[in-house]
Amino acid sequence: MTTPYWTRPEPPYYVAVFTITPSGTDPDGYAETNERMVELAEAQPGYLGRESATLPDGSDLVVIYYADDESIRTWKRNPEHVVAQRLGRQKWLGRYRVEIARVERAYEFAASSDADAARVGQE
């Protein structure tokens, strides 16, 4: 079975969790700016990956993975990103929350077959 998750490094690593509620006004330029920010972020040293989902209330949940805290701080100071942050507050975002966390440990489960799932229950 393939998994939708990308392969993460062994902890520790860092995550920046964004919960974003669009303002619903003045959407011009938002999509293009967002695409550019993703492009820039992916090229930045320390960037590991990104996952996102749209929540039932229409807000977006974005989790970005970084090798270390300094990579997050460097990204926050990127000149193009600083402009995008300002425009987001002025034009596109009704509300946002950012949470930064260090991942100390991680584990997962993935059932690959009925036989594997049955064995796990017997362990």
Low-confidence stretches: 119-123
Category from helices, strands and their pairing:
alpha+beta
Task: Please tell me what the overall shape is.
Answer: globular
Strand content: 25-35%
Radius of gyration: 18 Å
Distance between the termini: 21 Å
Number of strands: 4
Order of helices and strands: EHEEHHEH
What layout of secondary structure does this protein have?
Elements: E1 13-22, H1 30-43, E2 47-54, E3 60-66, H2 69-77, H3 79-92, E4 93-103, H4 114-122
Antiparallel strand pairs: 1-3, 1-4, 2-3
Features:
29% strand; disordered C terminus
Overview of this protein structure:
This protein is of the alpha+beta class. It is 37% helix and 29% strand. It contains 4 helices and 4 strands, in the order βαββααβα. The protein has helices at residues 30-43, 69-77, 79-92, 114-122, and strands spanning 13-22, 47-54, 60-66, 93-103. The chain has a 4-stranded antiparallel beta sheet. A hairpin with a 5-residue loop joins β2 and β3 (60-66).
